[in-house]
Each structure stands twice: as C-alpha cells, then as structure tokens.
Amino acid sequence: MFKPLPMLRIDLSLLKDDAPQAALLLANFGSFAPEITEIIPDQLPEMPGENYRQAYNENKSRLDKILDHFEIAVPEVISEPMQPVSLEQLNELGAWLKQVWQQASNNQERMRKLREDRQHAGQLLRALDQFMDLNVDLTRLQKKSALLDVRVGTLPLANIQRFEEALGLAGYVAIRFFSSAELIHLIIAGATGQSGEIERVLQAAGWRSTDIPAEFHGRPDEVRQELGERMASLDEEYSEADKQRRAQAALPDFHARLIDAAHTMARAAPYAELATLMRGRGELITVSGWVPGNELSHLEQMLQQSLGDHFVLRAREPHDDERLLVPSLISHQRWLRPFSSLVLNYGVPRYGEVDPTILFAISFVLMFGMMFGDLGQGAVIALAGLLLRKRVGHYTSLVVMIGISSSLFGLLYGSVFGYEHLVPALWMPPLSDPMLMLGVALGWGVGFILLSTLLTIHNRLADGRMRDALLDSHGAAGLLLYLGLLAGAWRLGTTGQLGIAIPLLVCAALAAIFSHAWRRNSSSALGERVLIVLVEGFEAIMAYISNTLSFLRLAAFSLNHVALAIAIFTVGNMLHSTGYWLTVVLGNIFMLVLEGAIVAIQALRLEYYEGFSRFFGGDGKPFRPLTLSGKRKLALQH
C-alpha cells in the first residue's frame, strides 16, 4: 500500500515455434513488462522475430489507414485472445490489405482532389466579389497590349485625389470599381509609351497590383455562374465518391473481414513488440522482463497449461545496483485513482521508495477543508461531484472528498454559505482568534515537514545511500537541525532563554551537514569548497524556516474565506431584498468557483514543493505491461 509492489526479474526460455503463443499468453497475463535479456548476445545472436515484426508494422500501418478511411471503429473486446498468429497468416492478411488499400487510396486521393478543387473554386468566387461592379470581359484585363497599358490594383483611399490628378497629367484614366474602408480598387489605362513615367506615380501613391485569376473568362456575372455550376458539379462528384466509400464500408462481409483483421493484428502485436527483445540460437529463444512477485505462480500455471513442459522460467529478486531499472507497479483502491494521478503528474515512485499517494490524499483533503471550511459550500462541491461524475470521470472521489472535508471544517467553524449564526461552531470561527489559527497552521506545517524528512531518510536508506540518509540537510542531521530550531524558537518564546543543550544540538547538526558537504565537493578548489559548504548550511536553515512559514497560508486562506463572505454580506445589506439575495447567491458562486480553485492549487503546491520535493524522487520507471493492443501504458492496479 505504501510502496510499489515487489517485483521479480524473470527469464523465459522456450522453443521458437512456441514464441507467438507465449507472447500472446504474456499479453493476456497483463502483468509482464518486457526488458532486454541479460544473456550475452554472443550466446544468443539471433533475433528470430525480426521478419514477423516487419510484416506486422507494414500490415498495421495499412490497416490503420483503411479503418480511418472507411470510418470503422474496432470493438475493444478481442475475439479468441489465445489464438496465436503465424508469419504465414500475417503475410496472407498483408496481401489482402494491400489490395484493399490500393482501392481505398485511389478513392481517398480522388476525394482529396475534389475537396481541393472545391476549395479553390470557393476562393475564386470570393475573389470575384471585387469585380462584380465591372461590366467588362475580364479576359481583356489579363492580356497585354502593344498600344494600351491596362492595370488593375488597389490604392489607399487617402491618396486617391492626388493620384487621379497625377494620372491625368500622365495621360492615364482611372475607373473605380470597388471600395472598402481603407482601399479603393481601380482600373487605370493609358498609352503604353507612358508606362515608364506612370511607374513612379504608382510607387509614390502606394499602388498594389491585383492579379486577375486566369480562370476568369467573360463578364463577372458569367464567371460567377460558371463557378457556381463548377462547385455544384464538384459537390455532386464528392458526394458520389463518399457514397461509394460508405457503401463499401457497410458491406457485411467487407466490414466483418476488417474487424477480423483488426483482431488478428491485436493478437499479433505482443510477439511483434517482443521481437526486438527476444534473442535466440537455433530453435531456442529467451525473453526477459519483470512481473509482480505475487503473480509469479499464476504466470507459471498459465505457461504450464499452454506450453506444457516446453519452457524454462527463472526468477530472481532485483539486485541493489539495478533499483532504478526496476519498474514500479502502483496498487491502490479505486477511490485513490485521482490522487494517484496527481502523484504521477509529479513523478513515478522509485522501486522501494515510499508511495506517497495515501499520505497525499489525506493531507490534501484536510488542507483543502481547513482553507475552504463551509458546510453549505462543501455540500455543494460534494453534490456536484456526484451529479457530474460522468464528466468529472475518475476524479469524482477527489471532488466528493474535498467537499466532505470542507463541510466538516464548516461545522467546526460554524459557517453555512458564509452565515455564522445558523449552526453553532463545534470549535470556533476563524476570525474569532486569528493567532490560534496561525498557530494551528504552523503546527500542521511542522508535522508535515517532520514526516517528509522521516520519509526522506527511509527512502535513502532503501536506496543504500547511508551517508546521505544520516548527514545530508534532508537526512537525520537535517532532522536534528530542524528539531533544534523548533526547540530554540519554543524556549525563546516561552522562557526567553535558549540554554546550552539546544545550541549544541544545532551546532552538531550543522557540523554534520558541513562535513558531508565538504566531502561531497572534494574535487572543488579550497575557497570554492568553503563557500559551497557555508552556502549549503545557510540554505538548510533558511529552507526549514521558509518551508514551515509556507504553511501559514492554511490559516491565511481560512481567514480570507471568512473575510470574503463578510464583504459579500456587506454589499448585500446595502441593497433591497432581491438585490441582497442576488448578491449572496452570486457571491457564493464566485467563492465556489474562483476561491475553490485557488485553494485547491495552493494545497497542491504545498504537497509538491514542501512535501514531494523533500522525500519523493519521482524518477522511477513506470511499469508498462505487454498488452494485446501493442501499446503499453502505465499500469495501476486496483
């Protein structure tokens, strides 16, 4: 519960002919994460599944494109999951898929071309809009004349008057045919011999030439009619091609054969994936991987039933030097899935490291409730989680639990939708004694950091890092330093004196931290080494102090929650009855949505940066079992 499941490294040796059956069995087993074999490649130089893998990849690529083209969804349930697929079957299926794809690709290319032509015709139709006021054959504007210089373009509206005057001096005329807010569209014409002079005028006025598409033949209304007919024809052709595609996909035999092909590929996927990891010589092959310790007997039983005595299975415990290579399989109840997801967002626990999911769930829910304590608002959150469970998904339990926590703290505070006189407080309203709230928040922070430090020590001992566990600033020496600082602050606050024992404890802890830092930076120059040691010691002290003070936000947000409610009621009391209730309702909605989100983020921040960053490496290797789909995913057992 508090650690990833114990794992065993296995080596499975079997006959080459049994490899597809064994791969399918391991995928159906669902708890085998394949790894590269430890056997020396010279002893097993062959990769017997390479041809199988290549055939699978080619078939899978074609099948995916065919299913996408015909919009056929494959059911998740795989028929006959224990039936292996031979290389001959793959090749036979590949020949059929190749024929189908040749036909489908032709249809797909035709539909793509029709879509592009339809899009191009639409663009032409939009470009034609600017020429609709012209009653002239557009073909003439496209041709170059030896005697007449005709140009079509745009000009900034502000320059039109001076431009027309300059055109007149150059012997050109201008015809306006379309205007917008900033530009005016013109046709200018003049003698070809004056084209050199007119170029300077055009450049000074900000002229931009407009190209008339070569497809525009005739007057604009004629072109529009032609384009409309063309688009209608393209739509009809596309509809016919799509109808043929859908008709083929609906054929019972064709549809059933594609589904069967998808199931065949799913059964072939495990062996294709193991092909890169299997090694062999002659008729013998070996595959290695990791399985949970409690599943080994089940795996042996399945192999025995399927392969008889034609296999050898060897298992061993992980070595100390390969702890980072062992995958972590997380096992939790279903209600912990959302909390486990948030933990995995930070990182995967190393093998042997404490899995913080349960501690995270408890502390996150309690911190949210303390910062957002209200009986009514908490009930709304819990009810919303239940009513919207289909949309919320596996986060339903998280939403319900933080809602319940908020309601319980609301009973302690005596708050119902911001009202503090409807139910008696089982403890006290936060604003009645802010200093006590701050003290409780500090106490929570101290306990949280102490537990995090203890977990850090445990994890480092589990990793075999004895010196770090004892002498590091986050290890036992750091724990003694923190306890000394806490004791010193308590003595100063109560008696005004430190005594002798507490300074000695702090100095001893700092000396251990300094010596560890000095040893760790032995390769640095003397001056640099001294500076690093002093900085690390200072950082250790400041980190413990700042991290503890970070938990004051628990009290700050609980006080802020009450203050925000008071502000809402203050505004409401300034209005009449309708305005009052409208303000109260909208104010509570505002608190639920905005403040609730901020509080959740703050609680998550405290978990990540004040907790996980101390003890949780998060660089573990996820357990990705072999599956029938051929796509291994992070496994979470429930």
Walk me through this protein's architecture.
The chain is of the alpha+beta class. The chain folds into four domains: 1-48 and 276-317, Alpha-Beta Plaits, CATH 3.30.70.120; 50-123 and 226-274; 136-218, Alpha-Beta Plaits (2-Layer Sandwich); 330-615, no CATH class. The protein is 61% helix and 10% strand. It has helices spanning 19-29, 50-70, 87-128, 138-142, 160-170, 195-205, 220-250, 252-274, 296-307, 337-346, 357-371, 375-387, 389-392, 396-413, 434-462, 466-471, 476-494, 501-520, 526-550, 552-573, 577-615, and strands spanning 7-15, 33-35, 148-156, 173-179, 183-191, 208-209, 279-281, 284-292, 311-316, 327-328, 330-331, 621-622, 636-637. Strands 1, 2, 7, 8 and 9 form a five-stranded antiparallel β-sheet that branches. Strands 4-5-3-6 form a four-stranded antiparallel β-sheet, with helices on one face. The radius of gyration is 38 Å and the shape is extended.
Rg over C-alpha atoms, rounded to the nearest angstrom: 38 Å
Helix amount, in percent?
Answer: 55-70%
The beta-strand count equals 13
CA-to-CA gap between the ends? 11 Å
Could you say how many structural domains there are in total?
A: 4
**Subunit organisation of the chains:** single chain
Number of helices: 21
| Derived structural class | alpha+beta
Could you tell me the strand content as a percent range?
5-15%
Major beta-sheet overview: 5 strands, antiparallel
Q: Average pLDDT across residues?
A: 87
**Spans of 5+ residues with little confidence (pLDDT < 50)?**
632-638
Tell the overall outline.
extended
